[in-house]
Amino acid sequence: MLALLLVAACDGTGDTAKVPAERIVGNWKGPDGERISFSADREFTATGLDSKKLATADCPGGKSGGSWGFFVDDANGSHTDKTASSGSWIGLGLARTYWDWNCALGFAVVDGGKTLCATYDPDDPCSLDVRFTREK
After folding, report:
1. What is the pTM assigned to this prediction?
2. 3-state secondary structure of 52
């Protein structure tokens, strides 16, 4: 799996929330039919990641998948870590099947962990203006 991009973002107040992995696991939806499901084994599946507001991230629109991890800074630099037990930024790595995409999408955990804010630019918080909420 290719680790694609880490993103750092924040909500309108500038605060991200560090949460345990269990709070990320589950199904999340965006405002325009985007869907992403994070599993405990650090895999994800998604659809609709090419919606209008996400188009600049260059991700597949049909079913896609790969691995996810929290973004960490350590002796190896900044990177996604599938073993990190908690974090406030999520990076995606697409499976080889999708390597022809330059998907540069990640999520910041905001609103106390109730929302995942999509972004592709660590210098522009919530740059894609798409917020994912947990499906009920």
Report:
1. 0.84
2. helix
